[in-house]
């Protein structure tokens, strides 16, 4: 710490938190956490490798799945350092600059995943609504441009976060509420005016909620299109192509909505429950998405088994 004036001392180290009351078993909790990270990283790398090496998977749906895997890898690698330091080594301290960098990457990859899930819902609608024109509308060049737009949009959207946080003064509180740094968590520690941070953070959250609203609208149109199909078997076949994406959407958005609801409406919210939900938000989607797509997508499953030498 160093002195700002005679009455204030600036904080030079933030402290993250594991699971309150279970500090003595953190080292045991670290075992399943490390296993989840390992499976998530291997699973998403496998998805990327299989799609990259199999010409039959060079199609828009699988390119979007690759983008989802990249987002999941980014989320895992962004939170991995602090989670391991807390649960394995019981080291909770983090410098402000490292904290600002971490929250930039976490929010950036979160927004990118939200955008990818949105365009995947449009992809499913287009595949069901206009299957004959699907390939001509979603060309490889257009998919590549979409991926670049998502990346640039996510970077620009969260780029102000570390700079606006760096301008704040931290002089009284230093304990954060999670095992990793989040914008809304860090700004609450400031003893200077954080109005700009509050409203810009609200704007970014609104952008993500807009993505979820458009996903819901997409599925309304998908259901309307499916109900217009005469054959019951064809209706089920069309809906079955959406199951993996619906699971990915639920896995991603349910923890976010639950956490936001607890912050907003939970009068007697449990800190432990909030920490667990926040950890689930970063641990479960990267872990489950590759599993869901391998189980529910026959083409991916067959190619993965083929790479492993299994039938």
UniProtKB/TrEMBL annotation:
GO molecular function, one term: G protein-coupled receptor activity
Key words of the record: Cell membrane, G-protein coupled receptor, Membrane, Olfaction, Receptor, Sensory transduction, Transducer, Transmembrane, Transmembrane helix
Membrane-spanning ranges: 25-50, 62-84, 104-122, 143-163, 198-222, 242-260, 272-295
Short name of one Pfam family: 7tm_4
GO BP field: cellular response to lipid
Membrane topology label: Multi-pass membrane protein
GO cellular component terms given for this protein: plasma membrane
PANTHER family documented for this protein: OLFACTORY RECEPTOR, OLFACTORY RECEPTOR 56B1-RELATED
Role according to the record: Putative odorant or sperm cell receptor.
UniProt name for this protein: Olfactory receptor
Organism of provenance: Neovison vison (American mink)
Taxonomic classification: Eukaryota, Metazoa, Chordata, Craniata, Vertebrata
